[in-house]
Amino acid sequence: MVALTFLTLAATAITGALAAPSAEAGPDGPNFEIGPHNLARRQGGMDYNQNYKTSGNINFSPSNNGYSVTFSGAGDFVVGKGWRTGKARNISFEGQTQQQAGTVLVSVYGWTKNPLIEYYVQEYTSNGAGSAQGQKLGSFQSDGSTYDVWKHQQVNQPSISGTTTFWQYISNRVTKRPGSGVVTMQNHFDAWKKFGLNLGSHDYQVLATEGWGNAAGNSKYTLS
User: Fold this and answer.
1) CA 221 from chain center: how many Å?
2) Active-site positions?
3) Residue 192 and residue 198: Cα distance in Å, rounded?
4) Residue 90, C-beta contacts closer than 8 angstroms, at least 6 positions apart
């Protein structure tokens, strides 16, 4: 989730305050719950549903191997499907995203610990930038496109380890891909390392749809 620095992670140009969403437990309830001071994980095996919402109409429906979401008037949300595991993986996805208003992005999104890192591999960004901010370090080629690499420091922001200071690593795909594809994550990890961006132990990883700034549209994906 981006941060509270530009508008509101979302929220317009790139900001995002993390407010407490309403989350319900249950077989299809979120494994990821956000409180006013930290991000807390619920235990739940390999399946991982991310369901973060602040305002607007967001209808998120996770399945065994993917998710769908429709949204309108969204101030800030991040929903997706993935894994809570000790390793990251390549992700193959099939589906489509349509943006009608606001800022919308689709990314492989995850966290590591020691060091605490929030990372994005942005496959589709309606505004061309998504969460990319801070310092641009360079570019590299992967999966049929150029990716620009950014790093950005979040100061005293919510994280999976509580409110603290941490770095964001962001790969932004130049050729937007709102539909199907494969993300070879190792290529990103290798490129980040060359730019001096080190990761820690992997915590969780999802394919996520995110929106802010009165975002409207829809996404539907299956992944493996």
Assistant:
1) 14
2) 118, 210
3) 7
4) 182, 183, 184, 185, 186
Per the CB < 8 A criterion, the answer to whether 95 and 180 are in contact is yes
pLDDT band at 6 (very low <50, low <70, confident <90, very high): very low
**Which residues have a Cβ under 8 Å from the Cβ of 27 and sit 6 or more positions away?**
none
Integer Cα distance of 174 and 13 in angstroms: 18
Q: Counting every residue, how long is the chain?
A: 224
H/E run at residue 169:
strand 164-173
Q: How many beta carbons lie within 10 A of that of residue 91, not counting itself?
A: 21
- HEC-encoded secondary structure of the chain: CCCCCCCCCCCCCCCCCCCCCCCCCCCCCCCEEECCCCEEECCCCCEEEEEEECCCEEEEEEECCEEEEEEEEEEEEEEEEEEECCCCCCEEEEEEEEEEEEEEEEEEEEEEECCCEEEEEEEEECCCCCCCCCEEEEEEEECCEEEEEEEEEEEEECCECECEEEEEEEEEECCCCCCCEEECHHHHHHHHHHCCCCCCEEEEEEEEEEEEEEEEEEEEEEEC
Q: Which of 221, 189, 191 has its CA nearest to residue 208?
A: 221
Q: What is the pLDDT of residues 158-194, one digit of tens each?
A: 899 999 999 999 999 999 888 899 999 999 999 999 9
| β-strand pairing of 117-125 with 201-223 | unpaired
